Amino acid sequence: MEHRALSRLAVPAVAALLALTTGCTGGTVQGRPGASGLRDPYFPKAGNGGYQVDHYALDLDYDPPPASGGGTPTSGQLNATAVITARAEQGLSSFNLDLSGLKVEGVTVQGEPARHNRTGNELTVRPAEDLKKGEVFRVEVDYGGKPKALVDADSSKEGWIVTKGGPDGGGAVAVGEPIGSMAWFPGNHHPSDKATYDITLTVPHGYEALSNGELRSRTDTGDGRTEFAWHSPEPMASYLATAVVGPYKVTTGKTASGVSVYNAVAPGEEAGSAGTLARLPEMVEWGSGRFGPYPFTTAGAIVLPKGSLTYALETQTRPVFPGAPQEEELVLHELAHQWFGNSVSPKSWKDMWLNEGFATYAEWLWAEDHGGAGAQKHFEAFLAGDTDVDEAADSDWDAFPPADPPGPEHISGNPVYYRGAMVLHRIRQEVGDAKFFDLVRGWAADHRHGNASTAEFTAYAEERTGHDLKKVWDVWLYGQDRPR
Ligand code: TRP
Ligand code: ZN
């Protein structure tokens, strides 16, 4: 009798345990929690498991703070709604979004209020009903507060950065590489989950508001504010999303092949930017010849007030520059990322050299095609430490293998850029120009608007060119020693 009583207890207990671990009870599929991170080798908590986002509709109402400090209680305040359309990749009892700072006012899933709580940068959402595997669902997050800058592993700043200028003094720029986008909207903040975006920014009269993609409308809301609706029809990794608010001067145009150009320049930076930005349309056309069709419907640049950032960033379709770009190579570099990084995005942050190696190599190619020192000259200059050809030639470009940075603080390190570019030049030396440029165009075409890893690149390069490139990978891409 005792034995039978025990087993009656044991059966439901085992069933409950099974339900927890497998998500199944008696045939009806039930959810289990989605993972709180995607185990990226450098940022294990970035992104979330169990779902993929199709679309973000972000509605942001922002009051720029005065540059001098002070202001009203709402200065620097963001009031926002994020509507996220996603697809469940497993049964989900709960799932996470990455969000840093800010206050969550409410969350609904499929229109029903959902329980939510925050631990660190993880917003856990528990829908009223479990989501089924394959189900497309809609999450609405109402949130707000004063968004902040984050300090990167390499001590540079990302996230939401207040800038100078403007009728009341202030403005802002959002930059998200690698994990800064969680400072201004909740999401699946890992480059492996790309989605389309609608970013709507409402700001006081007198300010421009800029973002990625096409400006669909610019509306006077009737209460002293202007609403700017930006639309990104192509998939975008969340680190490439931007929002910029300030008293910018906007100019528009078109490239020879009809790509629209939308530039915005901070007051005081117009004269310094005019020369390099004037060449942007030509660069889009040049890139289309070298790498294949420009991947987006629109292009441009956002020139921030000097001193607002320490780096430029290839935000999708519309890179941001920290003050007037002094050298055309910098504009070209950020443009080249539109093919390499933005259209073909890394699978993880370990693949960063695929972004930076290609963008740096593009600078060498641009010079090669415009009467400057070509790729071979740059390659030799780095080996010789010749700073006459390239200022970075005597840097620590050899400090670590580009495909294996020693930690998250090194993913934007010199070897990722320069030795990354040298890897590409070594391939070119092995296979010759015809096969090399066929490889570059094939890579951009076959992974257009997708993600790719280093292993996929090395396999693709060998298959496409028909060459065994193992030595290049061993020495240049993965080798610890300085290549000779
Ligand atoms: N990825 C940017 C570019 O090369 C530069 C960049 C972004 C960066 N974040 C950084 C450089 C942090 C150094 C540190 O266009
Ligand atoms: Zn770059």
Characterise the protein shown here.
This protein has 484 residues and is an alpha+beta fold. It has ten helices and 25 strands. The protein has an eight-stranded mixed beta sheet with strand order 8-7-11-5-4-15-18-17, with no helix packed on it. The protein has a five-stranded antiparallel beta sheet with strand order 12-13-14-19-16, with no helix packed on it. The longest helix is centred in the N-terminal third of the chain and has 21 residues. The N terminus is likely disordered. The structure holds tryptophan and zinc ion. The site of zinc ion has 5 residues, from helix 5.
Spell out the key features of this protein.
484 residues, binds tryptophan, Immunoglobulin-like, disordered N terminus, binds zinc ion, five-stranded antiparallel β-sheet, Neutral Protease, domain 2, alpha+beta, 10 helices
